[in-house]
Write the structure tokens for this entry.
Amino acid sequence: MAFTLDEVKRLTYKPRDAWWTVFLVDPVAGRLVVAAGRTSITPNQVTWAAFVLGLGSAACFLVGELVAGAVLYHLSFVLDCVDGKIARLKGTGTVFGGWLDYVFDRIRVLACAVALMWGQYRLTGQDFFLILGIVVVFLDMLRYVDAFQVAKVRRQMRRQIDEAAGEEHDLETEELVDLQRGFRTHFSWYMAVRDWLREHRVRTHLVSGIEFQMAVFIVGPLLGLVAPVTLAAAGMLLVFEAAIMYKLWLSARDLARALDGMRAGG
């Protein structure tokens, strides 16, 4: 089944994605999907290929071949984006495939973190790299758990609005309940930045799990600055996580005010 690049973009590109994916992955992944569309390659086969490349990256990191490890990690991530696109285009995605993709992602991060930091420890004898490996694994886990919980909380907020509105709930009610009013009040410049990023399909969460991984496993090794880049990326990740928590807290206050107003009006 053949697809054009425009079809791949329209049907598989996310409305908003990590800037690393938008600028450095999708341009390559999209063209690989076009080529794969003319073959019988399945999403799970691509997932396995991405996993093998990820393990190859870990092996390179372990023996101190940082540049090779960085290149293989990026190729692994590109293929990791290809499998989902093929599944959506061909309609061949499965629950097992989604689970396999997620588990392989976590194993890849764990293997590469252990291999990179252990390799650096063997080369330098500095115990600090062992601690840094634990930090990388912890922050990766924290980001993905937190993302799941934040999405869950936001769904619960909307559910509370629906329940409070009852039968009178409509689009007008949805528009009047603004759960980001508090955040925009404190950061008026945010809307202009958000709109510019949206025009380029980039989400406002500029340092998420993806950017953190790429900094640790690609940028740091390519520059030969594993520890400084990892520490800087960890600090930026925590800053953006704190911003998400602050924004969620403000949304909770907006929700409470909106619910009070809806109950008073009812």
Summary: The mean pLDDT is 88. Residues 34 and 119 are 38 Å apart (CA to CA).
